[in-house]
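Thanks for the sequence, V.! I ran Probable cytosol aminopeptidase right away. Repeating your input here for the record:
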Amino acid sequence: MQFKTVSAAAGPYDAALRVLPAGAPVRFCDQALQAAWQAHLGGDPLTLEHRQVLTLRLPLLGGFTTLLLAGFDAGVPAPMDAFRSLWARLGALLAECRASNVFLDALNEFSFASEAELLAQACAVLPLCEYTFDRYRTEKDPRREHTVSVLADGALAPVLAEGASLAGAVMTARDLVNDIAETLTPAELARRCRDLGACHGFSVEVLDRAQCQALGMGLFLAVARGSALEPQFIVMRYRGGGAQPPIALVGKGITYDSGGLALKGSGMELMRYDMNGAAAVIGAMCAVADNALPRNVVAVVAACENMVDARSYRNGDVFPSMSGKTVYVRNTDAEGRLTMADAITYCVRKESPSEILEVAGLTGSVCNFYGKVCAAALTTDPALFDRIAALMPVTGEKYARMPDFPEYRELLKTPMADLNNAPEGGAGGILAGLFLASFHEDVPFLHVDFGAMPFVKSKSDCQGEGGTGFGVKTLYHYIKARGTDA
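Predicted structure:
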């Protein structure tokens, strides 16, 4: 979907969009649209309620267009969430009427956010309404080229481009999460990262098993042992900030999770989704590079499968980490935290970051506790969480902070090793976060457990069944905001 600014409607258009303040008389900023409305419906005292959408056909510029009129009340709680929801509905209606050439009237009549902010949100939502994953279907969904002409000052063109690129990054993450494990192996994930880096403008280095062994990544390689497929330690680097230390992103990259010897009892058909943290950081890197953000960023993915084999790591074994700490493996199905522990240590010791943000769909505990509303975060530095929380209105991605009381840390202790990877105690999400927080050394660290947010089982206006791309917008906007802090 291509967005461009225009000074007036030039037509013909398949559809035109106008969002009005709820209760306000229908009027248009574009002169041609206003003239067409006055000529044919000017006597109608129509007003629209909040989120009410009307569709009608209107003669415009020598043809006919499908006009979508929507009302919006900026006084509702969480108006930006409501605004995104409205645009998801409008995008779904555009998809239904197969509009390829669309005119968007000005968005300059609302005071809760600037015109630039509102346009960025609209451009980040509309492309997602056309997203589909049909790689393995013989009958593909039709693909159309879309052009959206926006009545706005030409100086806002970069805002439209940013919104579109962010939507593209979310769709990249969705593609990765939706693909099957037979195709998206660790090696294929590394190959796609190289291709994306070449396309968007970041470098990619991939360490093989021998290089990981030389670095002492005993936890990552223990998890990888049960698979016939070679592990891939993927390091993506973007340099936009001169000599400053990078922000480090770490994403869980388990391309398939059987549970290992602690074999899962059900739901294994969904375990191709277990690399959603990796998908989020990869998508974020694409958006960061596309928009040339003024920060250095390094993103790390320890990619492997957790499979069952005669060489699989065992429940009850002890393994060394790259940090030197030893870990007692109580549960081989708590594998993601093992791979990411070595990835965190790699970031600390090889990349010297200013801070580390680690993300993963990690525990059933967070899924069960927070449901489909928010993800959970745990941090050693409250300022990190405050910065994430401040972004929730602009991203629509919500987070709750988990506690880190000393009593929880005591549960990680075991006489067998320095740490237990899956202690008993019931607080699985907190314990997983505290386990990972044992490896950041003195670098400010934030752990995010996406919980149930990275995939859905039913379709909605701008979301198909499957991967959501959750986390991409948060990581992008976090890095963008940190660029202004530099």
